[in-house]
Each structure stands twice: as C-alpha cells, then as structure tokens.
Specification:
heterodimer; A: about 400 residues; alpha/beta; six-stranded mixed β-sheet; 16 helices; B: about 260 residues; TIM Barrel; 9 strands; globular
Chain lengths: ~400, ~260
C-alpha cells in the first residue's frame, strides 16, 4: 500500500460520514431523516459547553472517572520484557467502558425529547450500560439480544431486567449480535418518533461511528495525560481488542498524531483464523456494506454475511467499525489476532498475578500485549485497554477450565 | 417505450391502479417462484417485484425476512435470480420485473456485472433498499447505461430538502413507503397516504406506487384513486410460504378488481 497524503489520512469523516472509502449511510429511506436529525442534534450538543459539562460531571460522579492507570509489574515479569500498563476501564460503573458512550447518548436522547431508548447487545455490557443510564434518566428501555448470547451471558440478562429494561431475545439468523442489531433497526424504524437507538459501538450509519468514538475518546485523553504525568512519557504501543471497536477507537484517538506511538487492534481469532470459527473481519474479511456502513465484513462469495465465532460474546461480530477499516487501510493502526485459547491463558495470568479478572474481550488485548512485551526491552511501555471486568464470563471460563 | 412505462400507461387507460406483487426469488425453490410469477400475472398482477435474498434483511418484517432465509437455505444466488427471470421471459415478454434487495450481494459481484446480467436476463429495474441516492452513484450509472430503471423510496419521514435529490435520480416509478416501519406492518393509515401521495404528485411526473403494509382489497381500493400502483408483498409471501397456489391466484384477482377507479 503506497503512503497516502496527510490530508487523505484525516481522522475526521466527510459530510456524509465517509472515512476514506468506508463508513457512509446505507439505510432505507425511512431512517435517513432520523439520522440527519440525530447528526444535527449531536453536533449541536457536542459543541454546547452545557452538554459537555453534564457529560463530564456524570462521568466523574456516576461512572467514577477518571479510571486509574495501573502498572502490572508481576504480569510484566511473567511476560518477560516490556512494562505492561493497564487502563482500568473495568473499574467503570457497570464494569466496562461501554457506559462512557451510553452516558452521552442517553443525555442526547433526553435533550432530543425522546422517551424511549433501545439497544442491541452481544456480551450484555452495552445492554447493561444502556439500561443503567435509562433508569438514571427515567427513560423506558428495550434491549435486543441474540438468544444464544442470552444463554452464555445470563448474569447480564438478569442485571438488565433488574434495571427495568425489557430484554427481547432474538432467535433469527445466528441469534447473536448482528441479528440483535437487525432487530433493533426494525424496532427503530417502527417507533422512530419517540425512540433513540443507542448503538453500542463505532459501527452503524453516520453519525454513529463518529459520535461513539467522540464519547469514548475520554479513555485515551485520560490515559495519555496519565502516562505523561506518571511515567513522563508516551507509551510505545497502545493495544486494545476489537469487536466493533469502540474501546479501541476510544483509546487510539488521543494518540492519533503521536507518530511514535504504535496503535494495535486485536481481533478475535476464535479457534484460529485458518478455520471458519473466528471473528477476524480485518484479517479475513472483504469490504462490503452491513448495518448502515461500508467496512470489512466476514461474508461468502455471494455477499451473504457469515457467522462469526469467539469465546467472547462482545467480539463475536462479523464486521468492524469503518474508522478501523480506514486506520487499517492507511496503516496508522495495525491489526493482529488472538485465539480463544490464548485469551483464556491471559485471563488466567492476569487473575493470578495481579488479582484482576478481565473480561474475555479485554483478555484478547492482554494476550497480544504479553506476546509483544516478551520481545521488547525492559524500559519500553505498552499501554493496554482493560476494557471490562470478567465477572460476566465466570460461567464460560469455569466450563472451559473443567474440560 | 419501456415495459414499465407501457404497463403504467395501459393501467391508466383502463382507469385503474397497477397491481405490483412482490415475491422472493427461490422461495422455496426457483421452480416454485417461476410458477408463482405466472400465477400472479394470470390472476391480475401488472408488475412483478422479485426479491433477491440477503442474510441480514433489516428493513423487512417477519414474513419477508423468513422468505429471505428460506431462499438462502435453498441455495438462491444472484445468478439464480437472473436464471428465474430468463425462464419467465420465455413465456412472458411484457410483464415488467423489478428486482428488490440489499446492496451487499450486488456490491460483491460488482454494479457493472449486476446491471449487465440483469438487462440480459430481461429485468426492467432495481430497487436497492439500503442504498439511498447519496451513495448510489456507481450502481445508478451502471443501471442507466443498460436501460434499467432505478427505483427510489420516498418515506413519510422524507423531508422536502431531500425530495429533489431523490426525484432527480429516480426512474421507472417512485416507491412511496406507506408507513413508518418494516414491510408487512399492520398499521397502515390510508388517509395519511392519500394526502402524502397527492403532495408528492406535485413534484414529479413519474408514476407513484405505494407499498409496505398493503394487504387487503379494501386497502388497495382506498389507495387506487391516488396511486399509479399498489405493491403487495407480505400477503403474497405468506401464501407462498403455505404453498397454496389457488389462494395466490384469488389474492391477485381480488386485489386487481379493487384497484379499478
């Protein structure tokens, strides 16, 4: 791939939401006007100091930000080599970075006069975060979740229900995240006047990829300042897992202009990218259009979307956010894969050496960071986005350990 | 004159609204689809809309969604869709056929290939549900170069500021979405639609067809005075799902009779 002009590598999408050839707005006409309204409302809110202050205050007083930056010394020693530094998004209220986005979108929904929010969820973390903020704002909340995901993420289903949300199982297709997203879009088009659709990742039609990235960019803004303050330098590497890619965009964005900082996204290789059982859209997918935007997708020769597979429900999605496709295209970020087994091993290492149970999603980022650290000098720093905590994964992990 | 223009013109001359019926190619098999197409035309359908199956049909309600899955399970592909059209044309060279589906399968094969193969098979136009005019440059040119109409949707939510752009790129006819929702929804308010179509009429000379949620002869009769065509999809697909050909002919005949102004 030839080097691109600086302007062509801009991090900002054009007016129609294109990141280079990716992104855009591919929806039925009925949703075009609501998306244009949402874009206008978002631009107006994000430029409003009052909204910014509400957002900031909620993150501080309710979510518990800023989250700590923690140097994992025993894990680093285990990996042998570079210093592993963790951005502790697992310490956010509700247990994952997902709430940063839902704080902002639910504030926006209220500001737009919507009485109801809907969401899709895979691992359940985004559903829990949406249900939480809906409860806090007094909005009604419906969450669509693949029936298969409901089975493997039972605790989060219970949490959503306790928070007052209606959880609707989705049996169609592969009964996972992509099908939940189809069903949420059907709901939205039917009740669009009173409903805001809280998309949980940097995917979907414009303005979602941009809006979710802006709301999640607090992760990288904090981490960058904390690195400079505590360690006196920027990290050499920033590593984050990628399903749709919201925690990764959130931590990458603040480092976009730091050319000495390498950005690495970690996709789920499931049982191996040489098999059909993975979720590595960038590594093994082709460019196409799904869920309102153009990006890399797992699909067959006929353009039918194929099922993805990962031990981690949050990474089990056959696409990836369009800005990641663009960063991949320009080379500003690089993308690697980690298998189920490698993620489980990293899960065990972090638990035993640091007393932290990571989400299986985040364990993918950890596994690659440990692999990377082993080949780096001791003074080198690797910043890892620990996007969520692992309590929700106990059943999956204990079942695997029992085998 | 194109098949589409001729069909709307003859309906107009007969003082009726065109009956446009939707069915999914390959649901449950190409042979069944071919037979159903002829049954619908014999029963009174003026124009056929033929669905191209997609794994993630997020604009469709349950009936047509299931038809997508059935067709895919039976192995339907874009090549297969064109084969059905070619075979239909062996016996019927005048009934217009409009393909309706989602962008990704078309994009994987390439807009140029799609337009060329569609024209060669005897297709008259295409409606790509998740492709608004803003994004449709390449396919639009390819279809136009092969003499195929690109049908665009206008929705109850479409603001006046977008209408000009949609109408500018549209050909064949305008498809007015009669409700906020997915295909086959059950809360059609025909009075609202009549008003909206009258408004739309002032901005375009193209024929206007109305669809989404039209199921019964009574609804069709209420829409006939305002619309050049009425699209019935889910009701057709539901009968096909039950493999009851006699009811299919009766449905088409009942709708056709209701569309006389």
């Amino acid at each position: 791939m030839p080097p691109l002009e600086a302007e062509a590598m801009s991090c900002e999408p054009d007016d129609l939401g294109h990141f280079g050839p990716f992104g855009g707005r591919f929806v039925a006409e009925t949703l075009m006007a609501p998306l244009l309204e949402l874009e206008a409302a978002w631009n107006e809110a994000w430029a409003d100091p009052g909204f910014q202050e509400q957002f900031r205050a909620t993150l501080e007083n309710y979510v518990g930000r800023p989250t700590p930056l923690y140097e994992a010394r025993r894990l680093s020693a285990l990996a042998g080599g570079a210093r592993l530094i963790l951005k502790r998004e697992d310490l956010c209220h509700t247990g994952a970075h997902k709430i940063n986005n839902t704080v902002g979108q639910v504030l926006l929904a209220s500001r737009m006069g919507k009485r109801r929010v809907i969401a899709e969820t895979g691992a359940g973390q985004h559903g829990v975060a949406t249900a939480t903020m809906a409860a806090q704002a007094g909005l009604s909340c419906t969450v669509y979740m693949g029936a298969r995901d409901m089975e493997r993420q039972q605790p989060n289903v219970l949490r959503m229900r306790l928070l007052g949300a209606e959880v609707r199982p989705v049996h169609q297709g592969s009964a996972t995240l992509k099908d939940a997203m189809n069903e949420a879009m059907r709901d939205w088009v039917t009740q669009v006047d009173e409903t805001h659709y809280v998309i949980g990742t940097v995917a979907g039609p414009h303005p979602y990829p941009l809006m979710v990235r802006q709301l999640q960019s607090v992760i990288g803004c904090e981490a960058r300042q904390q690195m400079l303050r505590t360690h006196g330098e920027l990290p050499r590497y920033v590593v984050a897992c990628i399903g749709g890619g919201s925690n990764a965009m959130g931590i990458f964005h603040a480092f976009r202009d730091d050319q000495d900082v390498a950005l690495i996204g970690v996709e789920a290789a499931g049982r191996g990218i040489e098999t059909q059982w993975h979720a590595a859209s960038l590594a093994k997918g082709r460019i196409g259009v799904l869920h309102g935007s153009r990006s890399y997708l797992l699909q067959d020769e006929e353009g039918q979307i194929t099922e993805s597979h990962s031990i981690s429900a949050g990474l089990d999605y056959p696409g990836v956010g369009p800005e990641h496709a663009w960063l991949h295209h320009t080379g500003r970020a690089s993308y690697v894969t980690v298998t189920d087994e490698q993620a489980l091993e990293a899960f065990g290492h972090l638990a035993a050496s640091e007393g932290i149970l990571p989400a299986l999603e985040s364990a993918h980022a950890l596994a690659h960071a440990m692999r990377l650290a082993a080949h780096q000098p001791a003074q080198q720093t690797i910043l890892v986005c620990l996007s969520g905590r692992g309590d929700k994964d106990l059943a999956v992990v204990s079942e695997r350990l029992a085998r | 004159m194109t098949r589409l223009a001729a069909s709307f013109a003859s309906c107009r001359a007969e003082h009726r609204s065109a009956l446009i019926t939707y069915l999914m190619a390959g649901d449950p098999s190409p042979e069944d689809t071919l037979a159903a197409m002829h049954v619908l035309v014999a029963g009174g359908a003026d124009i056929l809309e033929l669905g191209m199956p997609f794994s993630d049909p997020s604009a469709d309600g349950p009936s047509i969604e299931q038809a997508h899955y059935r067709a895919l399970a039976a192995g339907m592909t874009l090549q297969g869709v064109f084969a059905v059209v070619r075979r239909f044309r062996e016996r019927d060279d005048h009934t217009p056929i409009v393909l309706m589906g989602y962008l990704n399968p078309i994009e994987q094969k390439g807009p140029l290939w799609f337009a060329q193969a569609a024209a060669a098979a005897g297709v008259d136009g295409a409606l790509v549900v998740d492709l608004p005019p803003e994004e449709s440059g390449e396919l639009h040119d390819a279809l136009a170069n092969h003499g195929l109409a690109q049908i665009f949707l206008v929705a109850p939510t479409t603001p006046p500021s977008r209408l000009g752009m949609i109408l500018h790129g549209a050909s064949g006819f305008i498809y007015y979405i009669s409700l906020k929702g997915t295909t086959g929804a059950d809360r059609l308010d025909t009075a609202d639609v009549v008003q909206a179509v009258a408004h739309l009429r002032a901005s375009t000379d193209l024929p206007i067809a109305v669809g989404f949620g039209v199921r019964t002869p009574q609804q069709a009769a209420e829409l006939a005075p305002c619309a050049d065509g009425v699209v019935v999809g889910s009701a057709v697909v539901e009968i096909i799902a039950q493999q009851d050909t006699s009811r299919l002919a009766a449905l088409a005949a009942g709708l056709r009779a209701a569309l006389i102004r």
